[in-house]
């Protein structure tokens, strides 16, 4: 009799348990989707909506000091931009920052990562030393290097002691942009080093052991094993570095003469040009048009890199 009663109770108990589990799963899913929705909402508020708003502003004559009349002017802002020699110079300078900074940063980061892989003593200490500049304030680093590179600074003092002539450095239209790019490479080197160290540690040692058995040298292992298997890491670093150098602003603002991208606009980046248009000349329509162009350049270069640099990697 007791067995029959217990058997009769089991289905009802399992049904309640199943219902409770279903309720728990629903609450869990609501929590997960809610947690995902809140950051997405924040991203839309600070990123997506301003992008579309910038498109609207770029088609208007928008002066922040005007009385609120902002007429629609179509493509006039874009036409005016492409007729501006300073815009051409800023765009060219930005491409120089990318063309010099990105390869230099990737090569230096990979070289340091490979060297760190070869040592066993104080490896963590060296990683920390290389990573410290990346954590340091960009403004502080920029002003330290500006002090070093002034006409009577430490760099010219060292050159004089070695018997060389003094250099203009940041006051030279030919030298300044490459010096600023060099400072950026030096400061971001630690970040790239850490990314490449992580990528190198993800490569199975089995391949190197097989290569050693086959008699492969260091360069052969580097070109045939390390580089191909580092492709996902290289693509990530390449895209991040390209976007970083396309958005160059703080270093130029703090290291260039008068903070205006000098001398003779030789260091003015596209972002600094946008800043000057919007907050110095109060021409928000032109600034928004230049921002849209920068957005198209960033998106285009990123898509091209993902398409032509990415390769399928199989371990």
Automatic annotation (TrEMBL):
Major localisation: membrane
Membrane topology: Multi-pass membrane protein
Annotated compartments: Cell membrane
Xref: InterPro entries: ABC_transporter_permease, MetI-like, MetI-like_sf
The protein's name in its UniProt record: Sugar ABC transporter permease
Source species: Paenibacillus baimaensis
Membrane-traversing stretches: 30-53, 95-116, 128-149, 176-197, 227-246, 284-304
Domain ABC transmembrane type-1: start-end pairs: 91-305
Membrane in keyword set: yes
Entry keyword set: Cell membrane, Membrane, Transmembrane, Transmembrane helix, Transport
Keyword Transmembrane helix assigned: yes
Signal peptide stretch: none
Family recorded in the similarity comment: Belongs to the binding-protein-dependent transport system permease family.
């Amino acid at each position: 009799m007791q067995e029959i009663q217990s058997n009769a109770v089991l289905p009802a108990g399992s049904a309640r348990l199943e219902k409770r589990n279903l309720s728990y799963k629903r609450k869990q899913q609501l929590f997960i989707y809610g947690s995902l929705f809140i950051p997405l909402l924040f991203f839309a508020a600070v990123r997506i909506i301003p992008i579309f708003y910038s498109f609207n502003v770029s088609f208007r004559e928008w002066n922040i000091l005007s009385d609120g009349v902002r007429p629609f002017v179509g493509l006039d802002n874009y036409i005016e931009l492409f007729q501006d020699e300073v815009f051409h110079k800023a765009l060219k300078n930005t491409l120089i920052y990318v063309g010099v900074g990105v390869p230099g940063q990737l090569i230096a980061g990979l070289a340091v990562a490979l060297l760190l892989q070869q040592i066993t003593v104080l490896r963590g200490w060296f990683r920390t030393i290389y990573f410290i500049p990346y954590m340091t304030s960009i403004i502080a680093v920029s002003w330290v290097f500006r002090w070093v590179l002034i006409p009577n600074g430490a760099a010219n003092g060292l050159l004089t002691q070695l018997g060389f002539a003094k250099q203009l450095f940041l006051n030279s239209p030919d030298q300044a942009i490459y010096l600023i790019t060099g400072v950026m490479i030096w400061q971001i080197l630690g970040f790239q080093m850490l990314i490449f160290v992580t990528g190198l540690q993800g490569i199975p040692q089995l391949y190197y052991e097989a290569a050693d058995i086959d008699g492969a040298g260091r360069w052969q292992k580097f070109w045939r094993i390390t580089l191909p298997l580092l492709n996902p890491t290289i693509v990530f670093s390449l895209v991040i570095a390209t976007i970083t150098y396309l958005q160059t602003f703080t270093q130029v603002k703090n290291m260039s003469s008068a903070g205006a991208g000098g001398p003779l606009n030789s260091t003015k980046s596209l972002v600094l040009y946008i800043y000057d248009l919007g907050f110095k000349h109060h021409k928000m329509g032109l600034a928004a048009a230049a921002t849209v162009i920068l957005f198209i350049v960033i998106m285009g270069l990123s898509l091209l890199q993902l398409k032509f640099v990415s390769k399928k990697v199989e371990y």
